[in-house]
Amino acid sequence: MRSLSRHLSISLAFSLICFFMIQTVIVGIEMRKLSEESVLSRLEDDMEGILAALTVEPNTMPKLEWEHIPDIFKRPFSGHYFQIRQAEESLRSRSLWDGDLSVVGIGISRAVQGPEDQQLLILSRSFTLHGQRVLLSVAEDTSALEATSSYFQKRLLALSFGALLLLLVIQMWVIRRGLKPLAGLKKELQQLESGEREKLEQPVPSEIVPVVEEVNRLLFVLQQRLQRSRNAMGNLSHALKTPLTLMFQILERRSGDKECMQLLEQVQRIEGHINRELSRARTAGQSPGGFWSKPEQDVRDLVSTLEAVYRQQISIALDISEISNISADREDMMEVIGNLTDNACKWAQARVSITLCQQSGLSLIIEDDGPGMKEDEKLLVLGRGVRMDETKQGHGLGLAIVREIVDAYDGRLELEQSNELGGLKVSVWFPLSVSD
Fold first, then answer.
1. Mean predicted lDDT score pLDDT of the chain
2. What is the value of pTM for the model shown?
């Protein structure tokens, strides 16, 4: 999965590196241009001074008044040179010693090799004095300027690298600060999954607001669909209950008729199918927003109701830990506990035990002192895809409903012999978040 923070950091780092490299190159070019302009300006001034000290007579080589020439042109290899050429004759500065300037042509000549491997910038101009054409070239050593420019570029590059690191640190801080609301959103999503809230309320950047609104809308739609489904299933159950009861009564009165008994059996099958599908439709499963806020109170109320139904013939022992919040749909959990407890009460002789606790999830154990269940029947109950209404009457439908709900929550259902009571022991485990 790509990290948004890493992607932004890499993108910014690449952009800054490109920016600082281009900046360094441009600054270096501009520095060279400024340095060259400064040197050319000095060469222009030197050329005017040399022209002023130049005496030209017809048909003779120009003469210089050396006392008006700056001393820098008199010191050998000083880095400042001039050369005057007329026809085949030439007059050069003493700083050139016995060398010549490699003049390419009129104008500016760059990076010309001079005395002692000096890099010269040469400015050459042609003048006509007293009818004589004179080519004056003035040069200056730019090696020091090149070294200074190179040093400046290196320092600029080092400073740019330091600025790049500083900007990256600042950018990482800004990104983390900007993405901080997403951490809160992640926490709310976890709370939503655990059933501690019904919608997202974390303030987020405007770019994320549409996502949050869409998630909230989807949660609302899911809850509405689940509620409508349950209402519709309830209405259907009530609508079918009366005609099915009437059919049972009519067919039971004709119990002697073989065909009526066959028809009664098929009606019972229809009732089993309807109850099974109604239960499946009512199951919420691991949908977001499911929340069981008062499990202990609800289970105690259920036990009281069952004790009243069985007229105190069955003693129900309840052992429940102090669990206040369970991230599961209340109707699903009550359906599981109700079906298993009612089934245990039907088959028990006198005692039923219920244990509800937290063990890396929600653990439910229901035991009775009845006859238990045969191994082949257990296999039918635990086998996925088996239609439980086809198993032994009395265990089938209730355990089928339980298995559907357990499967919806990716839980576990185990059937075994109870060592304590001797009857059937049903163990159910749900991988749910439980908080005190």
1. 79
2. 0.45
